[in-house]
Amino acid sequence: MSIQDEIEKRKTFAIISHPDAGKTTLTEKLLLFGGGIHTAGAVKSNKIKRSATSDFMQIEKQRGISVATSVMTFEYRDKLINILDTPGHKDFAEDTYRTLTAVDSVILVVDVAKGVEEQTEKLMNVCRMRNTPVIIFVNKLDREGKPPFEVMDELEEKLDISLRPMTWPAGMGARFKGVYNLHQRNLYLFSPGKTKVEEDRLLIDSLDSPLLDQKLDSQADQLREDVELIEGVYEQFSMAAYLQGEQAPVFFGSALNNFGVRELLETFIDIAPTPRVRETDTREVHPEEERFSGFIFKIHANLDPRHRDRIAFLRVCSGTFQKDKAFRHVRLKKDVRFTTPYNFMAQRKSVLTEAYPGDVVGLYDRGDLKIGDTLTEGEELQFRGIPSFSPEIFRELVNTNPMKSKQLDKGIAQLSEEGVAQLFIQDKGRRKIVGTVGDLQFDVITYRLEHEYGAHCRFEPLSYAMACWLTSEDPAKLKDFIRLKGSSIVYDHDENPVFLAESKWWLHAMMEDYPEIEFHFTSEFKTEQNRVGAS
Ligand code: G4P
């Protein structure tokens, strides 16, 4: 098969949601369609359980297991689908943000009763940075929830994206009768409890068909009215707008009942993009280029101190990745070779010989690789789009064993390279400030520093709530600002100046006082739309 065929075969995506909306359930159902029945259940058992929140070792153990199913691959209608798993647990949200940099599209799951939740909005913001195409699945229609038009309004408003319903529900909860496919114009009838991949489809040539009244009784007229309203209110589906991340097709269903999932998958296969062009610091890289390139988007450490190896996750962007071949490690300016790269086929970890754009390769690493690193077949280029995101909790790292300062420095530097937390430096290295998105990370860091590096520390709470990367068209103004706001200024691992704000209100006050300074949510996307206050 030619490389072009390999590329056209692949669709690499992630399912994202606020915890409990149904991501794990939907993932399992999709795997069922791909014939991976043996894997269903595996996904569920890897889910980080809510009850384990206070026990991070338990969580790490579960995360360890889930490495094997970090990427789930299945074939459907001649396509090879890579689902990149994202941790639902809020404290690992940064892992999810980074995984989103390695996919070509996403499916967003929303609970019909909850609508758009906090995590949904944050994840969408990350998708918007790269114009990632999004398909929305409104889940749990077998339960009572918000009226569908209300959910649509909320999605449109809070996620700032235009929508096109592809299916529409007839009732919900106890009155849930099925979904109407607006494009194929057929009605798919719901029978609760049917979890097998089965179809119960009613072909109707027109909504006026008496069959509709027969099956839906008094709800038939409601559906007719709804469809009329939809056609009047929502634009037709536009492939171009979807691929630009401007319009999201919306499906309704019940993942638990495997209902509405097939419509979702069929459309996904038809419209989801194959591996896309990627930006680098020098040029665009096209997947069909002959020479290999890829980047590291995630690192998973082995918590067992006797095995210090880590697993780096490489996304192939162009050309062919090959086992044993020397590739250029651009940051370290040296050649590296991987003798046991493996793929993550669910439940099987097998060594691979070749991988193509869209694929994810697991690389054993002894400390050479960090998140954002680029590997190529010689060319000196650096992929963009793997930024650091603003943490939400900040604490000062205090060394409690001065004899082990070196170990502490090394340990915290390596942990931040792995993406466990972000390290900011203040006052020329005198103060180390660690930022995370969840409390749990501080337990993880303390434990790992002690057990893997022999260093001891404690964390002092700080009242900051967000970090903003700073730029200005006027370097002198930026320098002045940094001097004036010294106590709130820190530096990230690339020595970029970062402003720590205690609250949104405070940040906005700063922005008003210093209009010539630009504040950004992430380390990399210093674009207009990503500026604080741009929306
Ligand atoms: P997540 O990965 O997004 O966190 O969600 P997950 O799939 O684990 O689903 C969260 C809960 O919602 C689960 O119940 C799951 O069974 C349920 N669920 C998922 N889809 C549907 C649906 O279409 N209808 C209904 N009624 N429930 C749904 P749980 O009680 O937390 O877990 P479990 O005991 O069922 O495993």
Quick summary of this structure?
With 535 residues, this protein is an alpha+beta fold. The protein has 15 helices and 31 strands.
The CATH superfamily of the largest domain appears as P-loop containing nucleotide triphosphate hydrolases
Give me the CATH fold name of the largest domain. Rossmann fold
Shape: globular
CATH architecture of the largest domain: 3-Layer(aba) Sandwich
Q: What is the SS-derived class?
A: alpha+beta
Oligomer: single chain
Biggest sheet layout: 7 strands, mixed
Q: What's the structural domain tally?
A: 3
Any idea what the radius of gyration is?
A: 24 Å
Unreliably modeled segments: 50-54, 526-531
Spatial strand order of the main sheet: 2-3-1-4-5-11-6
The overall average pLDDT, rounded, is 86
- The CATH class of the largest domain, by name, is Alpha Beta
Query: Share of helix among residues?
Result: 25-40%
